[in-house]
Amino acid sequence: MRFVVALILSFALVWLCAKPLKKHPVPFYVGAVALVALYFWGVSANVRGEAWSYFQPLMQRCALAFLLFSVVMFVGVLGEKNPLRVHLMPIRRQLSILACIFACGHIVFYAASYIPRLTSAFSGNLAFSLGLAALITALMAVLWVTSAQRVKHAMKATSWKRIQRLAYPFYVLTYVHLALLLMPSALAGNSVAMLSIAVYSAVVGVYVVLRAAKALRDRAAEAAAPATELDLETAATV
């Protein structure tokens, strides 16, 4: 249920707030920071309640951030004339920044829990999970910084595009990380964890299929382009 809530919130933000998010992104960023601050306050104050039981997992388990990252990634595999792409492409950068802000809540919460225990617990599966989390955080930081307009304009276009390709391993590794976090609970029979893994897997699986299909279409178009140009040149000389 909490992931349905996250999905509804994400869709409302993306679809209904697209124009104001494009024109005035700063208030949305401030609102995201405020939600992260609210989350930390609630955790420190040990808040309880029905509304909190929905809000806390969205922040702590990175569900809202992951869904926003998913929207950003899916926009890239839609066709050029697809209505969803036309509507969402102008706010792709802003959605990435919002997702990074929400992800910070997850990162800081778990970093505060595990960093003090690094010397005594850095081994086995925990070592792998923490190492993977560190790699994902580094990738997110690079993508976040290069999403800024000033940084983008200061870079060469080819260099910027090369760095943005890091979004592919970042997205897949984020899924792996979340699945590893949920796996112990899922194996223990926790229905929420099992449903969460199923939802994450379905979303990423569909994306991988669409991304592969787009890559094949792009490759076919590139292969056909020289032949088309040659045909035009031949026709012009006849």
TrEMBL record:
Keywords, in A-Z order: Membrane, Transmembrane, Transmembrane helix
Domain of life: Bacteria
Membrane-crossing residue ranges in chain numbering: 58-79, 95-115, 127-145, 166-186, 192-210
Organismal lineage: Bacteria, Bacillati, Actinomycetota, Coriobacteriia, Eggerthellales
Ferric oxidoreductase domain boundaries: 64-174
Pfam families in the record: Ferric_reduct (PF01794)
Designated name of the protein: Ferric oxidoreductase domain-containing protein
Gene Ontology CC entries for this record: membrane
Keyword check for Membrane: yes
Membrane topology: Multi-pass membrane protein
Location of this chain's protein in the cell: Membrane
